[in-house]
Specification:
With 976 residues, this protein is an alpha/beta fold. It is built from 28 helices and 41 strands. It is flat, with a radius of gyration of 33 Å.
Length: 976
């Protein structure tokens, strides 16, 4: 691609974006080769839009105009275009100007900007997306302000500037509105950008899950095969829209298959097609994508395999698939997908290979594995749980879990999100979206391929240095419920979808087996719950006894949840009887429905009838006959999917109050608070699902996850704040960092000299205890005299640093004699002074030795870490982590999260240390890393925390050119 001679073509400015209506478009720099595209684009713009752009009638572009608008130096003159199908639909241009408004070069930092959007694409958010990208380009080129002249009647363009969130000034001059925008991102501009991103990506998912028409491309002429199976499932599921079967091998005279129109190409369909399910060999997919794109199809579900999972050639085939689909504005599920399902009664979409669609419910399920998806669908169905939607993303080349988090965040039909992930393409964004979604509904994740080097074939993921345990800690900080197995995923999902959130960890246990009650008690203790002594109803207990005991426990203000244990009854002849399972299930539901809202779970042993009865009561399955379902809905006057726990669509009303998983307000009879409790049911409402578990450990684990999540929800309502410290010298630190980076000859990063590291930390109020070199015994004595006894003598050699266990540290040296003796022992035992690099340091008050670190990871961003110093903590991995910037609440939780935290609070009679000073240190380090992304690593070790105050004994700082922050830049889809 030829470009202007001044600067090379900036390929990194190219980006795919999702527009307001859910379609995609490509933004890229304009080049001289675009002359014919520009002319064609301009011819399709209305006279009114041209007038708004040029302030005069301007019917056509002259050759001089075309040359000017297609030749740029990509510094002082830049033009970007938005393309769909290779054609321009919008352009933007800036020209750098001086204070007099004349063309200029750097250091002038202002530019004049102008937009033009094709009329047919106005209202799609094109100009807003262009403004984000041209502003990012301008900042990269040293431009700090945009100036724009807009006619007063051009309300759409004025609104684009006004709503962008940038600091701006407006004036009215010479019959036009003069706008000046400061391009430095603000909290408001970032919020606007993320709000638009959420709405656009959610809309793109909605278009996939609620199409008005579906074409199955590759539907075979004979029964069987992937395409014909997908077509059959779509029809059997009762899809409410139009269906077409497409296969180029159909004979010309064939007009129908399975009762739907049969055509040889999508282009032959006379009506719009919203979604295409692609089930053809991989080598034929490009032709199908072109056929769909030319016909205006909005999205693709690619079931075909043979892509990145098959090797290098498949990876390139997958890249080309994404590029081709996006060029037409289409989004892709897959390739190698199992399909998608929506149980909404208005759609009833089963565009998958699942032979039976799940019953309607309140769970959204996302999986990156088709096999795991099948298992999850089966397990949820068997245990009576319904779904709102199901997605198998396959290789997730385009649409990912992040997109569905955007959708489920506001989806009124989804109360709980379950996700099986094998990789996270954008962990920083995933964490941000998960935190926002978890604030209103639970997000449960099981992560496969957790160990380094085991990323599934076909998944593009960023490199990360941090271990999986750290990723898990950061997800928990974001409110994500992280579980280890798909069984735990189902267990937690059932608890959260069917029961209110617990107000605390106190658990009442009751049942007809003392032994099973004790096992449940132990399991609750293991999971960090606070179980009450089990109540044994004896083996003679009847369903009525269970009902009375449960009602009493639920009324007890001293418990927050109830676990019921049940074993089969033993008859007079010694034969076990489980036929009363349905009666017991009814009794438990009756007691739960009329009591205060508290979670209830059942642990049963060999009582399949009880589990089946509870699952059947929770089923929201519609009648098998679609017409019967329509008749039922019409009789009920309710066309929405039944609520969670509804017995059937026809016999159970939707709960009159909040959804499962919502937190209750201080008033027990209302909903919507974040205090961690769930919705209370109306008297007589027996639709609440009671989950049943075949093992006490599984029930306790699921309940514990609900307790921890409810606690996080309560805290999320008050997330804390990032403190402001008056003694921080941010500008001085920035200048200090800039000088050191300019002087460095390694752009990969470097560790600061000790003095430079200490000076930089001091600008943020972090003061390191000084040390003096001791190359010989005499120098050590002189250093001690300067610092004052008692002193410490320690080595600083890299292989001995922070290794007190190897004898490289001598403490409490009270005089010269002890110092000389310690020096002699060190050098005789460990090596020569030149190798050991000994230093002398004044002693500090006794306390607990800790470690504070911060680092920037390419995948997740800046991470703040804390733990106790020493081999034991390193060996056990006892370190806590939080994302930067940390709030005061994060700092408080950080030091209390590690298992060794009791040592800070007076363990076994020792004096508690100054945790307030420790929290302040953590927050100052967090601020330093957040304010200066060039600081890519900080290690303070050890930090001795005493009863009053703390002392940093050693520190290292690493600098590097700041890594790119994709979460702060303009919206863009992942690129290949």
């Amino acid at each position: 691609m030829q470009t202007s001679q001044e600067h090379a073509y900036p390929a990194h400015w190219e980006a795919d974006v999702v527009l307001r209506d859910g379609g995609t478009a490509r933004i890229r720099p304009i080049t001289p080769e675009d002359a014919h595209r520009l002319v064609s684009f301009y011819e399709q713009v209305s006279d009114e839009s041209k007038y708004y752009r040029f302030f005069a009638p301007y019917p056509r572009l002259s050759d001089k105009d075309v040359h000017r608008f297609t030749h740029h130096d990509y510094v002082d003159r830049v033009g970007l275009a938005v393309t769909v199908g290779g054609d321009f639909i919008a352009t933007v241009r800036y020209d750098r100007i001086n204070a007099q408004g004349r063309p200029a070069s750097a250091p002038a930092d202002e530019a004049e900007v102008a937009f033009l959007v094709q009329d047919a694409h106005q209202g799609r958010g094109v100009a807003s997306a262009l403004l984000e990208h041209i502003a990012a380009v301008a900042r990269e080129r040293g431009i700090r302000r945009f100036a724009a002249e807009v006619l007063p009647a051009n309300n759409k363009m004025i609104k684009v500037f006004r709503d962008a969130g940038y600091t701006q000034r407006r004036s009215f001059e010479d019959g036009s509105v003069h706008l000046t925008l400061d391009l430095e991102p603000t909290a408001e501009s970032l919020a606007v950008q993320r709000g638009r991103e959420q709405r656009a990506e959610a809309r793109s998912v909605q278009r996939l899950l609620a199409p008005g028409s579906v074409a199955v491309v590759g539907a075979g002429r004979l029964p069987g095969g992937v395409g014909r199976t997908a077509l059959r499932n779509l029809l059997d599921g009762g899809f409410t829209g139009r269906v077409y079967a497409v296969n180029r091998a159909f004979p010309q005279e064939q007009r129908e298959i399975d009762g739907v129109p049969a055509v040889r190409s999508v282009g032959e369909i006379s009506e719009p097609v919203d979604l295409a399910v692609v089930a053809v060999p991989a080598e034929r997919v490009p032709d199908v994508v072109a056929d769909c794109g030319e016909h205006g199809v909005q999205g693709l579900v690619v079931l075909s395999a043979g892509y990145a999972e098959s090797g290098r050639a498949g990876r390139e085939r997958q890249r080309e698939l994404v590029r081709q689909a996006r060029s037409y504005g289409m989004r892709i599920i897959g390739p190698n997908s199992f399909g998608i399902i929506s149980t909404s009664d208005a759609v009833r979409l089963n565009a998958s290979l699942a032979p039976e669609a799940p019953v309607p419910g309140r769970i959204g399920l996302f999986t990156q594995s088709g096999a795991i998806g099948i298992a999850l669908l089966s397990g949820l169905h068997r245990r009576g749980a319904g779904l709102s939607s199901f997605i198998s993303s396959g290789n997730r080349a385009d649409v990912s879990g992040n997109d569905f988090l955007q959708y489920w965040h506001e989806d009124p039909d989804t109360d709980v999100v379950l996700m099986y992930l094998e990789s996270i393409g954008n962990p920083r964004k995933f964490t941000r979206l998960a935190r926002r979604t978890a604030a209103v509904k639970p997000v449960v994740v099981v992560k496969g391929a957790r160990h380094s080097g085991s990323v599934p074939p076909g998944h593009a993921v960023p490199f990360t240095r941090i271990p999986d345990a750290t990723v898990g800690a950061l997800l928990r900080q974001a409110g994500v419920i992280r579980v280890d197995t798909v069984t735990e995923l189902v267990d937690a999902g059932l608890m959260l979808a069917g029961q209110p959130l617990p107000r605390g960890p106190r658990v009442a246990i009751l049942g007809n087996s003392e032994s099973l009650g004790l096992l449940t008690y132990d399991a609750c203790l293991t999971e960090g719950l606070r179980p009450l002594p089990p109540r044994d109803l004896t083996t003679a207990a009847t369903p009525s006894d269970f009902r009375a005991a449960l009602a009493e426990a639920l009324e007890d203000d001293g418990c927050d949840a109830v676990v019921i244990t049940a074993i089969p009854w033993v008859g007079e002849n010694g034969v076990t009887e489980s036929g009363d399972g349905e009666v017991l299930a009814t009794a438990l539901r009756d007691a739960s429905a009329t009591a205060p809202a508290k979670p209830v779970a059942v642990v049963h042993v060999e009582m399949g009838a009880l589990a089946d009865a509870l699952a059947a009561a929770a089923s929201t399955a519609p009648p098998s006959d679609p017409s019967a379902r329509a008749d039922t809905a019409e009789r009920d006057g309710d066309h929405e999917p039944a609520g969670p726990g509804a017995a059937t669509l026809s016999e159970a009303p939707r709960p009159a109050v909040g959804r499962p998983g919502e937190t209750a307000p201080p008033d027990p009879g209302a909903t919507g608070s974040a205090d961690g409790s769930g919705p209370s049911s109306s008297p007589g409402d027996d639709t609440r699902r009671i989950p049943a578990y075949p093992a006490a450990e599984r029930a306790a684990r699921a309940l514990a996850e609900a307790v921890r999540y409810a606690q996080w929800r309560r805290h999320a309502a008050e997330p804390g704040r990032v403190p402001v410290y008056d003694d921080i010298d941010e500008a001085g630190a920035a200048a200090h960092i800039e000088r050191m980076l300019e002087a460095a000859d390694d752009d990969r990063g470097f560790t600061l000299a000790t003095a430079d590291a200490h000076a930089l930390l001091a600008r943020y109020g972090v003061h390191v205890r000084p040390t003096l070199p001791a190359p010989d015994p005499g120098a050590a004595v002189q250093a001690a005299a300067r610092l004052g006894y008692p002193v410490a003598l320690k080595t600083t050699a890299p292989h001995l640093r922070h290794r007190a266990d190897l004898g490289g540290v001598r403490l409490d040296l009270a005089d010269e004699t002890q110092l000389r003796q310690a020096y002699r022992e060190l050098t005789e035992t460990l090596g020569k002074p030149a190798e050991l690099q000994p230093v002398v340091q004044a002693m500090v008050p006794r306390g607990v030795d800790t470690v504070v670190r911060a680092a920037i990871d390419p995948a997740v961003g800046a991470v703040l870490s804390f733990g106790l110093a020493g081999v034991a903590s390193e060996l056990l991995g006892d370190t806590a982590h939080r994302l930067v910037p940390a709030t005061d609440r994060d700092a408080t939780e950080l030091i209390r999260t590690i298992r060794a935290a009791p040592l800070l609070f007076g363990w076994r009679g020792s004096a508690p240390v100054d945790t307030s000073a420790l929290e302040e240190l953590l927050l100052r380090v967090s601020r330093l890393v957040d304010d200066h992304p060039e600081v890519v690593g900080i290690s303070l070790e050890p930090v001795v925390v005493a009863q009053h105050g703390l002392t940093v004994l050693d520190a290292s700082v690493r600098l590097a050119p700041p890594p790119p922050r994709s979460d702060l830049g303009p919206r863009r889809l992942p690129s290949y």
